[in-house]
Amino acid sequence: xxxxxxxxxxxxxxxxxxxxxxxxxxxxxxxxxxxxxxxxxxxxxxxxxxxxxxxxxxxxxxxxxxxxxxxxxxxxxxxxxxxxxxxxxxxxxxxxxxxxxxxxxxxxxxxxxxxxxxxxxxxxxxxxxxxxxxxxxxxxxxxxxxxxxxxxxxxxxxxxxxxxxxxxxxxxxxxxxxxxxxxxxxxxxxxxxxxxxxxxxxxxxxxxxxxxxxxxxxxxxxxxxxxxxxxxxxxxxxxxxxxxxxxxxxxxxxxxxxxxxxxxxxxxxxxxxxxxxxxxxxxxxxxxxxxxxxxxxxxxxxxxxxxxxxxxxxxxxxxxxxxxxx
Length: 326
Description:
By secondary structure, this protein is an alpha/beta fold. The chain has a single domain, classed as Lambda Exonuclease, Chain A. The protein is 40% helix and 17% strand.
């Protein structure tokens, strides 16, 4: 039994919802696996997280995704889950009828039009339920900062195109990755935190992070968002296309030496974002190549490795697992 305080007010966790997939995508997903090797039936499954793990350290990726060794749950993970659960609940309920009194959104818009900002803010804030016992890991501060940003957007937009049109959006796609002249089928899988309308027929992908922010994070975020964009386009999820912008928010950005709480939005097709499609496909090819060749070398670095659950198993740090494999 977990010792952590977890709170998810959503009736069904987003990852357990029944999905409306085409028969082809459903079959592709069901036959996909993180442990795929050449000669196996099915195909390799790649998520934003597994791709990021391989970029971080191929050997750690192998231990976690192929050998499926467990990781140790920690407070940061629980905090992230608790915050995401509240954000998901907020967007799922802010525009829902409440006790025959209209939706919180419509009520708040009317109050704002009357000049009653204080009550409008209170109505929107009340959508977020309190846990049965106090948060333990700093979630409250993160949630309040996140809500402050949504309130600022509400004041600017007057509630127009303010609500997320997609909430924990499930994405699937099947692509072929060419390795040494052979097309290797891959199933892409992910959940996009939120999607917003840009008001002009396009869509904005938004990712929420509960960790620290520094300037080096921007490159990683662009590549994460491009992974989602690729999955939407290749999976032909037309209800969220075209993607015109992507964005991210770090309401806890000062944690662990981060420089500030930060949110950013970027328009696609600019010099800053144009490299991301090539970069993501290159990263996918490297991951598939690792499965084809069986090579997942460790990439040791002191500050990075001190957070690894598998340090004692890593040959770069004197571990024996690599030697035993040989």
